[in-house]
Amino acid sequence: MSVKAMLFLIVILSSGLGCLFIIKLDWKRYGFIFLVSAVSGNLLCYFLTYIGFYTFPNNLLHNGLLIPYGLVSTVFPFIALFGIRYSPKKWVWKIPFYWGIIHLGVFAEVILKRTSIFRFEPEWDLWDSYTLWWINFLLLETLGGKVVPDSARNPISSDAFRYGGWAWIIFHLIVITTIFLAGIYVGVTVIK
Question: How far apart are CA 192 and CA 179, in angstroms?
């Protein structure tokens, strides 16, 4: 097994374990969110791949399949479950919380684009992907707010997002670093 395949397997297994950890807290509600996220993620990924917006030319662990079902069925649901479980109560703080998560997700896409695993076609770019990440996770957060009661959530305190709080520091570290790297990425791709 190649190093890339091992890394894929590790990501799938850790995301799956993360999903199980959160689902066991309230299996009906979080299980429902898991299913909605996994099914919608796979359908959306399949559709966008089928119409040619992006491709998986070297689909590790899923040889012969159009999309990496294992990865989509664990990573995206884990992010959704994690977001619903830990996002702050107020929307003013949910936005920076998801902003950091989405920046990490798009950063992971950029890394995958640099390998033979994942490729954007000319009709699709990072901005499209970034927008889709936002739509997906805000819709899932809204659904989670209606399905998962406050008693089954563990929101990060709003105070943690205020100046100097631990969440403020982590959020700024993620966003500033990824914006800086996005600038480098744009510079490199424009020069080519």
Answer: 20
Is 67 in contact with 59 (CB distance < 8 Å)? Answer: yes
Q: 26: how many CB neighbours lie within 10 A of its CB? A: 18
Average pLDDT value over all residues in the chain: 91
What pLDDT score was predicted for residue 182? 85
Which secondary-structure segment (H or E) carries 54?
Answer: strand 54-55
The β-bridge relationship of strands 54-55 and 119-120 is antiparallel
CB 23 within 8 A of CB 30: yes
Q: How many CA atoms lie within 13 A of 170 on its CB side?
A: 13
CA dihedral in degrees (178, 86, 143, 43; nearest 10)?
A: 50
